[in-house]
Each structure stands twice: as structure tokens, then as C-alpha cells.
Amino acid sequence: MKTPLNRFGIALLLLILTGTFPAQANSIAEKIAETITVGPAETPIETPVETPIETSVETSVETSVETSVETSTVIPVAERHRYNIAFLWFSRIATAELSLQPTEDPDLWEATLAARTRGVAAWVTSDRAQSYTSLMRWEEDGRLTALRHDSVARKTEGRRERVRLKSYIFDHEQRRVVEQTDRDGRQSESVSSMPETAPNDILTAFFNVRLGVYGPLEAGRQYRIPTFSRHGPSEIMVDVLGADERPRSPRFPDGGVLLAVEVDQDVFDTNDGLVYVWFDDQDRPAQVVVQNVIGLGDVRSTLREN
Q1: pTM above threshold 0.85
Q2: Per-residue pLDDT tens for 33-83?
Q3: Last residue of a domain, one of 37, 71, 105
Q4: Residues 27 and 53 in one domain
Q5: Which of 42, 71, 100 is the last residue of a domain?
Q6: Bond from prior residue into 250 cis (ω within 30 degrees of 0)
Q7: Comparing C-alpha atoms, which of 272, 244, 270 is closest to residue 258?
Q8: Where is 134: in which H helix or E strand?
């Protein structure tokens, strides 16, 4: 037997089961009830509302996914690169390693750049070794914030090892920068107010560039990255060079992306603070040239393929 009451009840049940139970449920149920035929138990129920319900669900999922992708931030990825280094008239006489690794704290990352001379070059350069280490915090907006930066330079003169240490501690809670130095046991410390914009050390700036924090690496762009040196607040200048801006010397392969970076002269003990970084088609920092390093000239680093 067919009754309006049965049709209305089935319409309400369909709305509840499909999760579409708006405030106007009664009026919707009445309209759906008009299209439903209720008979004996064995008579199948035809529900033409299934198609529009499926379409609505698919559209909602696609919009949610697109929004999630657009608003997501880039998460650092652990990486490690090894290089052969050439300078003066030597080739492949020193090695270096650049790495970014997570710590036990998921929000803290450590970046390291370490280089050491080998063989005859070690004798010529007094067994010179240099390392840079940065402790950084990954923020929700995708950038890395510098917490501490240490640089260590070692060389042997006769039987005596000379060590030069320099540390920058970025105290964001008290808004200050602490600089500590140790030159062969002679220690000193100075405290400065932190600039309004949190400074980057050289490694934090490099990996922030890698993460795209300052924007895409497109030819013609220039980025001024706040940093800190013994002279106080300063900037790291990064220029993305176009094909017609590339230097004749040093030469780099065609393609890829070439950056000209100006840093404080004290960072790499250079006369002018100019560094070139070339990223290959796989977005790897494949070649790095530090110009006019005191006592060494241009120091050229090439990524080891193995």
C-alpha cells in the first residue's frame, strides 16, 4: 500500500544516511518523497538523488586538497654533499663536506661545512682545516632561524697547533647576539642588541635560499639577507645571474642557476668576500668558488659524483 507518510520517512532516512541533512530537511524530504515509490518489501527503491550527492563530495575533496597544497610550507630534507677542492696550482688536494641533518629535536637542524687539505697541500698550507657549524630552528612558516654558529680554523706551525674559534649565539628571548672568540687560548666575549629582523649566519642563509624562503631563484633577482658580523648588523647580498651576466673567470657550465654572493670578508678570510655558487639541473650545489682567499687565491670546489 502506498502512503505519503512512508515516502516522507524514506526521504528523511536517505538524507541522514548520505550525511546531507540541512536545516531545510523537511522541504527537501517532501520533494524527494514525490519521486519515490513504496510498495511491497521485494520492490526495489529507486533513488535518483545518488548522482548529485556523489558529485558534491568529489568537488569538496578536490578543493580541500588544492588548498592544502597551496598553504603548505617546505620542510627541510636531510642532505650531504662531498667535494674535491682545488687552489693555487693544486687540483683535488683538499676535500670538503656540506650537510644538513636533523637533530633529536624534530624542530632543530644542524648544518655543517668542513674542509681539510690533504697530501702535499697539507704540508704547504700547514695542515689547514676549517669548519662551520650552525644550529637552526625550523619555523612553521618554512624558514630556518639561526640559534648558534661556530667556526673553527686549525693549522700546524712546526710542532704547535694554532686554533681560532669564533661563535655567535643568537639569543632570541633576550634579543641579543653574543660573540665569543678564542685565539690560541686568548678568549673574549661581546654582547650586542639583536636587530629587529633576526640575522642569518652564512649556512642558515644558504639553506633558507635552498628552501625558497626569499623567493624563486630567477635570473635578475637580488636578495638582501640580514646577517651579523663583528662589525654589527650587515647583509648577505645574493644575485641570481642571467646568461649574459656570468663571469668569464671563473667559468661555469651552461644551464643551471648561478649565484653571486657577497659575504663579510671575515667569513672565509677573503679579500673581497665574493662567492659563486652554481646549482646543476638536479638543484645540487655542484660548484662553489670562493674568490681571493688570503694566502690561497681562488678556492674551487666541485661536487664528487660518487
Answers
A1: no
A2: 444 444 444 444 444 444 333 333 333 223 222 222 333 467 899 999 999
A3: 71
A4: yes
A5: 71
A6: yes
A7: 244
A8: strand 129-138
Based on the fold, state whether residues 103 and 49 are members of the same structural domain: no
Q: Residues 36, 141: one domain?
A: no
Q: How many CA atoms lie within 13 A of 64 on its CB side?
A: 6
Please tell me whether residues 147 and 263 are part of one structural domain. Answer: yes
Alpha helices for the chain (secondary structure H): 4-17, 25-33, 50-71, 119-124, 202-210, 265-268
Structure-block grid coordinates of residue 237: 647580498
The residue whose grid cell reads 665569543 is: 180
How many structural domains does the chain have?
Answer: 2
Spatial distance between the Cα atoms of 211 and 214, rounded to a whole number of angstroms: 8
What's the pLDDT score for residue 3? 42
| Same domain, yes or no: 111 and 200 | yes
Q: Are residues 236 and 125 in the same domain?
A: yes
Residue labelled with grid coordinates 694554532: 162
Enter the DSSP assignment of 66: H
Q: Which residue range is the domain that position 65 belongs to?
A: 4-71
Do residues 228 and 263 both lie within one domain? yes
Residues 141 and 275 in one domain: yes
For 156-210, write each residue's pLDDT tens digit: 877 788 899 999 999 999 999 999 999 988 999 999 999 999 999 999 999 999 9
Residues 30 and 277: their CA atoms lie apart, in Å, by 70
Residue type, position 142, single letter: G
DSSP 245: G
HEC profile of 78-109 = CEEEEEEEEECCEEEEEEEEEEEEECCCCCEE
- Cell 639553506 locates to 207
Q: Please give the Cα distance from 241 to 220 (Å, whole number).
A: 6
Mean residue pLDDT of the chain comes to: 79
